[in-house]
Every structure is written in C-alpha cells, then in structure tokens.
Amino acid sequence: MTIEDLYQIGALYREQLASFRAEIQICGSGTCRSAGAAEIQRAFESVCEEEGIRPEIRIVTTGCMGLCGQGPLLRVLPGDVTYTRITAGDAERIIREHVINGKPLKERMLPEDYPFFTRQTPVVLEHMGRIDPESIEDYIAHGGYEALAKAVTYQSPEHIILEIRNAGLRGRGGGGYPTGLKWDIVRRGTSQQKYVVCNADEGDPGAFMDRAMLEGNPHAILEGMAVAGYAVGATQGFVYVRGEYPLAVDRMKRAITEAERKQLLGNRIFDSGFSFRVDLRMGAGAFVSGEETALLHSIEGKRGQPNPRPPYPSQVGLWGKPTVVNNVETFANVAPIIHRGARWFQGIGTKRSTGTKVFALAGRVRDTGLIEVPMGTTLREVIFDIGGGITDGGSFKAVQTGGPSGGCIPEKHLDIPVDYESLAQAGSIMGSGGMIVMDDSSCMVDVAAYFMEFCQSESCGKCIPCRVGTVQLSRLLDRIRRGVASEQDIETLEELCVMVKDTSLCGLGQAAPNPVISALHFFRPEFERHYRDHVCEAGVCPVHSTEAAGDAAGIESGGAHV
Amino acid sequence: MEYTPPHTDSRHKQLDRALSRHQGRPEALIELLHTAQDVFGYLPRDVLAYIADALSLPRSRVFGVASFYPLFSLEKPRAHEMTICMGTACYVNGAAALLRTAHEECQCEENGTTDSLRLRSAHCLGACGRGPLLQVDHRTIVDARTEDVSNAIAELQDPEG
Predict the structure, then answer these.
(1) Is the pLDDT of residue A457 over 50?
(2) What is the ipTM of this complex?
(3) Residue among B65, B125, B130 whose CB faces A35 most closely
C-alpha cells in the first residue's frame, strides 16, 4: 500500500457512492438498535425490492447519528433529510414519496435548523453516523488513513509530537493531561519495546461516547493509535474494550482485520520503516479496570487492580515497558490534528482547553444523545440550546458530570464554560463526558448515596480507605436517606470524605467522595431537611413514605435511631 | 489432582483450540476465560482447573481472576436472564422502581436467581438516551416502565403465554 493506492481506493469508492440514485442511512447505535433499527432496515430493503429500485439505492447502517432520544433515526441523501422516530411502517411512504417522487415528508422530517445539530462543532464525530463502520473503504473515501500516510511518509516522530503539543490536545478520558507531553516521555524512554494502549473501558454510568465511537468509526481510533505508535516508537498496540459492549468488540475486531488486510496495520506501513500491530483485549465488567495501571494488569491477564503512581505507565507500563495510555476520544482527535494542523485545532475551544469535547447528554433533558461542542461552551447552552431544556416542562435542578468521580452542578453555575479548569472550580470534573441532567424528581441525598453505592460495589478491595471507607460512607448516606441521621453523622460524613479522598490508592477511591462533597456543598439544605425534618421533597427517599405512613413507620425510624 | 477433560465433549475441543492458539501464555488467561464462558455458558470449577494446568498457573490465581471480574459467572446460568440498567441516566428516569418491581415479582434480590431466571442490575448498558433500559434475554426494551417488567416476568414464568 502506497499513498497513491490509498487515494485510488478512496476515489473508486466515492465514484461507487456517487453512482447510487439515493442513499438511506439508518442509525445503528445501541439505542436505535434497541428501538428496532434492524427491523426498519429490512422494511426499507423490501420496499425498494418491491418498487424495483433496490440496486439504485444504497441502504446502510451507520454509527450513532446523535439524537438518541428521538430514535430510531434515518437520513435520506441527497438532501440530507433526517427523519426521527422511524418505524418499519414508514418505509413505504418514505421510499415512494421522498426517494421516488422527490417530495420529503415535511411533517416527519427534522427541521434543517434544528438546534441540537446546528449548535455543535463536529471534529471527532464528523463522519460518525454517516459512514459505514464495517467498511474500511468508506473510511478511506472520507480521508481516512491519510493522516497516517502523511505522518509516516513525510514527518518525523519529533515533529508529530510537537504538532500534538502545539495543538494543546489534552486527555479526553477526563484527566486532562497534555497528550503530546505524555507521548514525549514515552518516546524518550530507553526501552526497545514500547506500547500504545487505547483505554476503551468506558465504565462511568451514564456515558456512552466511547461505545458510540468504537461502534461508529473504529478506524479513526486505529489511525490515531498508529500515529501514536509511530511518534513514540512502539510496534504494538492494544485496544481494551469494555466487555459489556459486544458490538463494539465485533466492530473493532473487524476493523483491525480489514486494516491488516489493506496493510494499513502490520509490517512496513506505507512502505516506511514503521511496523505496528493492534490486538484487542476484552474487559470483564470491573469498573476499576478503567484506571490505567489496573487496565494494564488486566491486559497482562491479571486481576484489574491498580498500582500506586508514580511510576506512571509512560515510564513503567505494560510488562514494565514505557506505555502510552490514552482514551478513545483522545486517539480520535489525532488524525484531524495531523490533517489540518495544530493552528486549526488551537482555534477551537479556549486557550487552555483546546478543541472540542464529546458529551453523552442524558437524563431529564428533552433531546438526549451524543454531542460535540467546542471547549468553553457553557453548560446552559449545552442543556437548554442543544438539549432543548428539561423534559415535560420540569425545572432544572442539577447537572452531573464526571460520573462517580464528579459532582452535581446547580443552576447558579450553569453559565460556567465547559473546560477542565472551570468544571474543577465548580466542584466537579470534566470526566470522560457523561452529562446527566436532573430535575425536581431527583433527590440529591439519594443521588449522592447512589454514587457511593456504586463506588462501594466497584472498589477492588486493595486499599483500606476505599474498601472500608466507601462502605461507611454508604451507611451514613443511607441513614440520612432514611431520615435517622444526626448532626454528628454529617460531621463524620464530611471527615470521612476527606480521609478517603486523601488516602486511597487510586483514582476510584480518591474521587469516590466527590459526588458527596459537591452535593453537601450545593444542596446542604436538602440534607438538613432529611435529618432534621424527616422530609424528602423529591419523594424519592424512604423517609418520605415513613412520614406518610404515619406512626408505625415513625417507630421504625425511631428504632433505627437508637 | 490431574483433570482430564472428556474428549467426547466438542466444547472442550473449542477450548483446546483457543489454548493452542495462545500457546499456553499466562497473559492469555482472561481471553481464555472469555472463551470458556462462551463455550460452557459459565465457568465450571473443573474447567478453571484445566485452564490453570494448561497455563501452568496456580489454581488460586485463575480462580482469583475469574471471581474478580463481574462478567465471569461461576454459577450455572438459568434459562432466562433479566437485566435492569441502573446507570445514572436510567436511575434519574426511574430505574429503581423497575428493580423494586422485579424484586417483588421474582421474590429474589438483586443478582439473585429463581428456578428459571437470574435477575441482574447493570451499572450501565450504554444506551442512556432512552433510559430506563430493560434487557430480557437478548431483547432490549427502551423507555421501560414497571408494567414492562411485570409483563416480561409473567411471560417468562408462563412459557405458553
């Protein structure tokens, strides 16, 4: 494979695409599949058969189109018309009226200026939901693997690292560590053997960005990994995919095989001296394995338990060798940066947080889905302009970012820009990109307890502060939830939070108290209502039902108090 | 104690093929556990011992890894499985009520079993846009309600229905 061959493949495939009279793209994301995407595809195929136009129409299942809440989604080209809430029964009308007679179904289509889409800046998600994730040719036809070709043919490893540093790319897994700096440390490592690892062990509840990218555009991740391999001098990469995502595993395996077949992975890539292979490893359901040192243990076939850092994996990583560990989205940003340059990338976002961020917007918001916005966009814009505000006309209460390591941000901070520093100042973290909107139906005590129960069950048990601390914190939160806590309990809770945060071995334990600390900071009166007045205003906690149930339940909670 | 697999069992052949592909390298342990679980539906003790011997690993190490990861099951699977997603998005949209209904109707706890059903709660199934999510065997129901849980359980318990 040479650069010319690559261009040829792309040109041929584009020609092939242009030969179709129309194209029907069906969203094949996890959400749309659950809502019946496969059945819809069959319906469209059979209507096209009936009409005798099947060979002229390209019907393709794509990755996530983004607007999950209104799925299953379908797009018709030419014209780029998106239809929402499609059923198999819609096939006939859409084919006959839109595809054959050229009259889109006005009442069913999404307005062209629908803010969910117009307010976004797709960089990582540019081709997501448009290309066939099972076709390497489709990726190549959209400029795929050109960045890798350019890198290994014309650029030195030092130049690439400088470009990534100048771009200001920071770790999208949530840590925000400068990617170029990390790569540089690995490159400078003296070991002959080095590794590149893609952390696709997406475990935060309420986050599905990695899943969507693995399923929707796997080659973009592989290309980024290969560029990283070239930059740091590694010949072996691993993608560690969460075991709960079987489709992501299949798509990624297929992508690796295809790329090997096309000699885009393997020996002497683009006739250069650079060789790079990628293997897939499947996780098996342990949240803590997403922590980088734990993840490396898991690749080595061991229990996914963390090590204290330093040393960092960039110095002592997989089998003791220098290892780049980056998140899925970080790798997906690499090809666009190599393609369009650091200056272009710097132009997006803020000074210290450049580029865009992908978020999984979910919860009590009207338009849920996968979005990508420039860093520095405010939370209000994300939730109210893109997300369309709160479901069922409810009122906003908090937005949770960073999953079990993050916090809840209240109304008064909605105008802060979304970047690493501002979110940290507001007592939360950027995290990997889960963004859960909550309204009055959520109780913040209950939410804090929910996250603590999560951390408790996912604690690997290696260090005592996390193993024991999360259990004690859970018990205290449960006392508040049941309305039987005392002032003393709140004090203990706060002290214990600090202790667990300061003394736990890895990120899981160190961040486990965050949701509680932020809830106490912003929603203290709600806690007080629980333990002083035995009232849960959201009506979620058991204290509420005890109040309503009267004396018998009162005795019960009194008993627990003693 | 040496464990000899019954060679008539074709499932063992699949496991053996995977073992020879990985050439007995101990770092392949998790891969092999995935294969074994695919083949047998769970990880029987004798199979764990067999893998340990094939990789020259202590049995304690193999059992330790198998029991560490929640996706590995050391128990024989039931005929049906019901999973309720308790990811944050599902939770704020009422997943707890679904789980309560399932507890009541199956008369078993979370991650518990009845004769024919295993009830699980998942930390996140990654389809947060349409939560709460209910998974019954291989079928996923989006925007699930407590009625969906009741109906699914009734259906599973009454195969005629």
Answers:
(1) yes
(2) 0.93
(3) B130
